[in-house]
Design goal:
The complex is a heterodimer of chains A (241) and B (420). Chain A has nine helices and four strands. In chain A, strand 3 and strand 4 form a beta hairpin. The C terminus of chain A is likely disordered. Chain B is α/β, with parallel strands linked by helices. The longest helix of chain B has 18 residues. The mean pLDDT of chain B is 95. Classes of the chains: A alpha+beta (241), B alpha/beta (420). Chains A and B meet through helix 3, helix 5, helix 6, strand 4 and helix 9 of A and helix 5, helix 7, strand 4, strand 6 and strand 10 of B.
Chain lengths: 241, 420
């Protein structure tokens, strides 16, 4: 009995139809997306189902899950918030954004919030370098981009997700009141990268954090983020036009 | 700058060009129709050859030549559009596919006709989920309108386009890794030769072209090679989309003739450097790039495939990252090395191990824990990676490191000699 075929017979036929009949294996990537649609991760059962559809071994399917960052082999948060803090984004304040976001959600990079809703990840380039800070949100259903973000707008989005969940609604983390970035403490980056946050039992560790601190550009050097607010808005509106 | 007529980013001037009716009112799909109904496949290739169009994905290889190399006698064969845009600092293909998707799809179709492929795939990075959905809609619409599908325009030629989503791996932008990934294997590069024009997707002859490259093709066919050559330089004809990011006032995509100087891009288009800071360095090809010292000579260098190497870098995909004098280079290379260490596919030992050790050394330097001899160690490790791997990722990981150490030594000396 193949649960995946039972559940998505038409989608599977459509996917297989894209590739030559003797090259069925090419369908492994779209089938994995299909398999993680409902739960947000690929179950062991699905590995077997895909393997039998494609006539390859479950191990071969699992190797694909392990190789790519957008497949998840374990249950994590319902919403994967994947913040880009690569060089171009970091030059526009992404490190600081990520650290502050983590601080507000009471998690470290790679962890999931206690309610199981949000997993925060630091990822590499998402092709949105001119609109940083930016992140993508991955759910089983797909992906969406969120650009020109502030910590406040990102927290508002998380709050929106919390409100839309069935069952008891949890309190949001501490409000980010000081909007001016100049007010941030210089060491803000460190909490994201190794130093445990005291008094925050909320976090559920999901992945091994890097033991070594990621170098964070000191806040004092953030030329871009020190611009006055009105000038920042000008940049965002004019950017790319 | 004067408002020139855009060739690629046409949606900025014709807002609804993503709609099929609007695209067709503006000459859309005429080039493909013309090719299929009145040109031999080789004639199409000849026109593209004559235009001098070079690959916009980074390597700058002549597009027409690539098509001509494709072995059309082995059956079947394929076109794969490389929409895996993942180089840090590059965000041009995304804008084309979001704003002007039909021109891109028409380019794919023309390339397929030129090499007589009956199926073409568009490999998009997994993050472009919504773009893939939009392209799927457009492809359905084109099929419904009889512009793609079987026996096109009654001439007997049939073509299907398909999208294929990657799942988050920079290496899949390397063409042979992309072909492996599409085949359902790990996205790891192949030993070359054989090259894709003889051994590509599913082991069959395959043309792999970048999104921006293909998007040029419909207009080249419609207006001719001479029209295309009016912009750009003799050896680097045409326009190019420059993705400008980092410490500039107005980051974004700018479509400009090849040969435009860095100064024009950064100051006339990008509005210069924010605040009191001064420009310090330029990375013209994203995170893979060498670091250029931003002196007057560099700023007045034309951005084309021949001139950029004269100041010690490559044009690549023209993702120009601007660095100002508040940014320490040890921090910068720690960032780029982190990227490549994360994205190394693990196949070649020098890259897999070398990027790992470079990450540790660069982190140590930036955190102020390094000894002076660590700089030599870093240089040694980088030199051991360069030129020793199957694909360019290993080399790319060393460019900023080696040029950073060589061209900005003061930034590093200050870090390692702090306590002495």
């Amino acid at each position: 009995l193949n649960a995946l075929i039972e559940k998505y017979p038409q989608e599977i036929n459509k996917i297989l139809g894209k590739y030559p009949a003797d090259q069925k294996r090419a369908a492994v990537m779209p089938l994995l997306y299909l398999a993680q649609r409902e739960l947000g991760y690929v179950t062991k059962r699905s590995l077997n189902d895909i393997a039998s559809i494609l006539e390859i071994t479950p191990t071969e399917v699992a190797s694909i899950v392990g190789f790519y960052t957008l497949y998840h082999g374990e249950p994590e948060g319902k919403y994967h918030v994947q913040v880009c803090n690569d060089l171009p984004c970091a030059l526009r304040g992404a490190d600081e954004f990520l650290a502050k976001l983590c601080e507000n959600l009471g998690v470290q990079v790679g962890e999931t919030t206690a309610d199981g809703l949000v997993t925060i990840e630091a990822v590499t380039c998402l092709a949105g370098c001119d609109k940083a800070p930016m992140f993508q949100v991955q759910t089983g259903e797909g992906l969406s981009y969120h650009e020109n973000q502030t910590v406040e707008s990102a927290l508002a989005l998380v709050e929106q997700w919390r409100q839309s969940q069935p069952g008891p609604v949890e309190e949001t983390g501490p409000e980010a009141e000081e909007t001016a970035r100049e007010a941030l403490p210089v060491q803000v980056g460190l909490s994201a990268s190794g130093e445990a946050e005291a008094g925050e039992p909320a976090a559920v560790a999901q992945s091994g954090a890097e033991p070594e601190a990621e170098p964070v550009l000191p806040t004092a050097l953030h030329g871009v983020t020190r611009l006055p607010a009105e000038q920042r808005i000008y940049i965002q509106e004019q950017g790319g036009q | 700058m004067m408002e020139a007529e855009l060739i690629l980013l046409r949606h900025r001037q014709i807002p609804d060009i993503a709609r099929l009716d609007v695209y067709r009112q503006n000459g859309g799909w005429e080039a493909f129709h013309k090719a299929v109904t009145s040109m031999q496949p080789d004639e199409v290739t000849e026109v593209v050859k004559a235009s001098g169009l070079r690959g916009r994905g980074g390597a700058g290889f002549p597009t027409g030549l690539k098509w001509a190399f494709t072995d059309k006698k082995v059956w079947p064969h394929y076109v794969v559009a490389n929409a895996d845009e993942s180089e840090p600092g590059t965000f041009k293909d995304r804008e084309i596919m979001e704003g002007n998707p039909l021109q891109f799809l028409e380019g794919v179709a023309i390339a397929a006709y030129a090499v007589q492929a009956r199926a073409a795939y568009i490999y998009l990075r997994g993050e472009f989920w919504q773009i893939a959905a939009q392209l799927d809609e457009k492809i359905d619409e084109l099929e419904a309108a009889g512009l793609l599908g079987d026996n096109l325009f009654g001439g007997g030629y049939s073509l299907r386009l398909y999208t294929h989503l990657g799942a988050g791996a920079y290496i899949c932008g390397e063409e042979t890794a992309m072909l492996e990934s599409m085949g359902g294997l790990l996205g790891q590069p192949r030993l070359r030769p054989p090259f894709p024009p003889s051994f590509g997707l599913f082991g069959k002859p395959t043309v792999v072209n970048n999104v921006e490259t293909l998007s040029n093709v419909p207009l080249i066919l419609l207006h001719g090679p001479d029209w295309f050559r009016k912009a750009g330089t003799e050896k680097s004809p045409g326009v190019k989309i420059f993705s400008l990011s980092g410490r500039v006032n107005k980051p974004g995509n700018y479509e400009l003739p090849l040969g435009t100087t860095f100064r024009q891009l950064i100051y006339e288009c990008g509005g210069g450097i924010p605040g009191e800071a001064k420009i310090k360095a330029i990375m013209p090809a994203g995170a893979s790039s060498s670091l250029i010292v931003a002196d007057d000579k560099a700023l007045d260098t034309p951005m084309d495939y021949e001139s950029v190497p004269e100041v010690g870098a490559q044009l690549g995909s023209a993702s120009v990252i601007i660095i100002d004098d508040t940014v320490p280079m040890d921090w910068l290379i720690a960032k780029t090395v982190r990227f490549f260490q994360h994205e190394s596919c693990g196949k070649c030992t020098p890259c897999r191990e070398g990027t790992y050790w470079m990450k540790h050394i660069t982190n140590r330097i930036t955190n102020g824990q390094a000894k002076p001899e660590d700089l030599q160690l870093l240089h040694d490790v980088a030199s051991q990676i360069k030129g020793k791997c199957l694909c360019a990722l290993g080399d790319f990981s060393t460019e900023a490191v080696l040029t950073g150490l060589e061209r900005f030594p003061g930034d590093f000396d200050a870090k390692v000699n702090k306590d002495r």
